[in-house]
Amino acid sequence: MDLAFDRQHIWHPYTSTLSPLTCYPVKKAQGVLIELNDGQQLIDGMSSWWSAIHGYNHHVLNQAAKQQIDQMSHVMFGGLTHSPAIELSKKLLALVPDNLEHVFLADSGSVAVEVSLKMALQYWQAKGEPRSRFLALKQGYHGDTFGAMSVTDPDNSMHSLYKGFLPQHIFANSPQIGFWQTWDEADLTDFKQKLLDNHRQIAAVILEPIVQGAGGMRIYHPEFLKGVRQLCDEYGVLLILDEIATGFGRTGQLFACEHAGIKPDIMCLGKALTGGYMTLAATLTTKQIADTVCGGEAGCFMHGPTFMGNPLACAVACASLDLLATGSWQAQTAAIESQFADLLPQLTRHQQVKTVRWLGAIGVVETHHPVNMKEIQAHFVAQGVWIRPFGRLIYLMPPYISTPLHINQLIAAIDSALDNHQLFHSAIEV
Ligand SMILES: *Cc1c(COP(=O)(O)O)cnc(C)c1O
């Protein structure tokens, strides 16, 4: 594999052309194992960013892709339709909260978020009371495109780089009370105030239910989410739930909003939708919102990507949802959660550890100092695991099929890293 070419010419996520790091070359992946070019096998702790929930190279998903590819890989979705999209939408509507009735198939998570924002804007326009602002949470993350960036945490993200270009939205304090802690209404005070002060301008609240992912791996109390739903109803503001990371069982419920027993007005899905095989996302909404949008001046919803409803991706997504329908994800994520509950607290004996937290198949170790990415990555690979931390967060979101032995090995690798000061930047360097 021409790694020199890769370093010189290919952009990887958030990388510099001036000081490119060498990436590890992957030959293939099977089950929970990622095999490098030299034959070394790594236990995957990341599910390729929340997506490969059933593991890699799954025969059921492979079969679905092969069957579909012999029918057609793609046809345009304008004026044409096909059974992979119809079957997928049927399956999705049977799983999501029952107030959602319309499905927009988008190309990626970020696009699903853009679509959700556009739906909310068109909704208020059609009602003859245009609103142009969104209320989001600090430490939230919604994607890398402009609309998605504009509702992502303004302080810990790339906002300042695009000053003057990003629309200014409103940010409430992120929830401080953890999932397993005792609830206190005071956690909602700032959110409530922001809604009270601005509700006539606010088209929708957008947030990640229960788990704030890339913005800090924060796992918060269901009562916060319940309160948000009540306040949105009280002030007549739409609620968009970004379940792109949390959806499809990751938090131990099929969708994270189920922890709070609430329903969104608009829901974004992505990541695990195809079981990690290819990019596909969806934005779902109610009949009332869809019909209002389409009753407006425009007469339709103004979005339609070239690869909308891609049959190949839809066919694999159908197969992935069939695997979820067997229900085994429930026992699997519960087993992973109880292993996290047993083992993660033991890591707090390391001075480097600030706190640990977990929910479902998500486990997080927050350290005092940021990781030295290059060094810690090499350490993990030497330990035979694939874990990719960021900042002060070392976290696991393994495939649901991971065995107790796999989880033990992942946590043992983190354990061994925590005593090694060279794997962390000192406080002074930061
Ligand atoms: C990953 C993610 C996105 C963006 O999805 P992409 O497929 O990377 O565009 C949006 N929202 C949340 C919560 C995410 O975790």
UniProtKB/TrEMBL annotation:
It comes from Nitrosomonas cryotolerans ATCC 49181. The record marks 14 as: Participates in the substrate recognition with KAPA and in a stacking interaction with the adenine ring of SAM. Belongs to the class-III pyridoxal-phosphate-dependent aminotransferase family. BioA subfamily. PROSITE patterns: AA_TRANSFER_CLASS_3. The gene is bioA. Keywords: Aminotransferase, Biotin biosynthesis, Cytoplasm, Pyridoxal phosphate, S-adenosyl-L-methionine, Transferase. It is found in: Cytoplasm. Homodimer. Pathway: Cofactor biosynthesis; biotin biosynthesis; 7,8-diaminononanoate from 8-amino-7-oxononanoate (SAM route): step 1/1. GO terms for biological process: biotin biosynthetic process. Substrate binds at residues 49, 141, 271, 304, 388. This is Adenosylmethionine-8-amino-7-oxononanoate aminotransferase. It is an enzyme of class 2 (transferase).
